[in-house]
Design a protein that fits this description.
single chain
């Protein structure tokens, strides 16, 4: 079996426990981020991405108003993001902490953290400033999401 060691070089043999733990955490974070991307695609396809016009609340409340399925779908996307973000943070922290000074994990860890912050900021800005959404925003948001997914995997 091949894996990257702490210097970012390919080694063979069994993964050490830290590398194995990081692998499974990164896999979990990747699956969560993929789920957020799918939910974002559903929002875009059904044109309900602006159902919650403010951020971080939804219609000024922490729980969305009852009876509006479009609002619940938009809010579900936010909840999925809130679930995925801590996983990404843990993977970034462990990737930075357990790798060597010049390891590839340090670069991808820093990049995943920067992309997560950019995604949250972009989502907040759009929710509060662009209630109808725009094509350029959706393309940028999807592109950053895919880059984030790539840094995790």
């Amino acid at each position: 079996m091949k894996f990257l060691n702490s210097q970012g070089l390919i080694s063979t043999g069994a993964k050490p426990p830290q590398a194995q733990r990081l692998f499974y955490l990164a896999l979990s974070a990747s699956l969560l981020v993929f789920g957020v991307i799918v939910l974002g695609g559903v929002l875009r396809a059904t044109q309900v991405g602006a159902a919650c016009p403010d951020w971080p609340t939804c219609w000024g409340r922490w729980m969305p108003p009852a009876g509006l399925s479009s609002v619940h779908l938009d809010y579900l996307h936010r909840l999925a993001t809130a679930l995925a973000a801590p996983w990404v943070l843990v993977v970034a922290w462990l990737g930075w902490r357990t790798s060597g000074a010049q390891g590839v994990f340090k670069i991808t860890s820093a990049l995943s953290l920067a992309l997560l912050i950019a995604q949250i900021g972009l989502g907040a800005w759009v929710a509060s400033r662009l209630p109808q959404g725009e094509g350029w925003y959706s393309a940028l948001h999807l592109g950053l999401s895919l880059l984030l997914l790539a840094t995790l995997w």
